[in-house]
Amino acid sequence: MFIQIVQGRCRDTDGVHRLLDEWRDTMGGTAPGWLGGTYGITDDGQFVGVVRFESREAAARNSARPEQGEWWSRMEECFDGDVSFHDCDDAMVFLDGGSDDAGFVQVVQGRLRDPERFRHFMAEPMDMLHEQRPEIIGGTIAIEPDGWFTETVSFRSEDEARTGEARDMPEPMRAQWAEQMDAMSDVRYLDLHHPWFASAPVRMPSSGQ
């Protein structure tokens, strides 16, 4: 899986939402390898889009489509200043991944001292986490070559997320998570109180006729 993170200061929230819905309805069905996206705007006006493709090559083919360029020229007008793009071949999901039913998404960004160790940790079974934090539906992790990472965590609701944050984790789970947090730097949290989502339509297999 390949993930592209798009970020910028939004000046037209309604326009961003409308154009992303337009892309989903008119272009998403034919976008090469597109899997879905998670989107939102923080309280201070920062837009975050986490878009999933089957591969970097599929994302590049989508970007090369003329209609994509025309759409993006309109999308750019909704932002103040530059929009950043982070392309990540090193991407994975945990627990049940994202969910179009999530009521709250927290985006975590920072730098990993040991990306391989973190990746291995997140790939381990998370039965204990699911038991202790049932409000976490799942999420995605995207890691850039320099160790910068973007993680999305989808929750059923923000109230449940805040309650879960205050709950003490049992040992050794608490120690394991503390160790991973100690291996991060420059960590910041972007709360998407009103996230929205898009998913690729289910493609039925060919009958061969």
Number of domains: 2
Name the average pLDDT. 91
Total E-strand runs: 10
Indicate the CATH class of the largest domain. Answer: Alpha Beta
Q: In DSSP terms, counting alpha (H) and pi (I) runs of 4 or more, how many helices?
A: 7
Task: Briefly note the structural class of the backbone.
Answer: alpha+beta
Question: What percentage of residues falls in helices of 4 or more residues?
Answer: 25-40%
Q: From the coordinates shown, what is the CATH architecture of the largest domain?
A: 2-Layer Sandwich
Q: In what range is the share of β-strand residues?
A: 35-45%
Shape: globular
N-to-C span: 30 Å
Task: List low-confidence stretches.
Answer: 204-209
- Please state the CA-atom Rg, rounded to the nearest Å: 18 Å
CATH topology of the largest domain: the name is Alpha-Beta Plaits
Provide the succession of SSEs: EHEEHHEEEHHEEHHEE
Q: How are strands sequenced across the largest beta sheet?
A: 4-1-3-2-10
Largest sheet: 5 strands, antiparallel
Name its key features.
Alpha-Beta Plaits, 2 domains, 209 residues, alpha+beta, five-stranded antiparallel beta sheet, disordered C terminus
Can you put this structure into words, describing what you see?
The chain is an alpha+beta fold. The chain has two domains: 2-89 and 194-199, Alpha-Beta Plaits (2-Layer Sandwich), CATH 3.30.70; 91-190, 2-Layer Sandwich (Alpha-Beta Plaits). Helix content is 32%, strand content 38%. The chain contains seven helices and ten strands. The strands form two sheets. Strands 4-1-3-2-10 form a five-stranded antiparallel β-sheet. Strand 2 (34-41) and strand 3 form a beta hairpin.
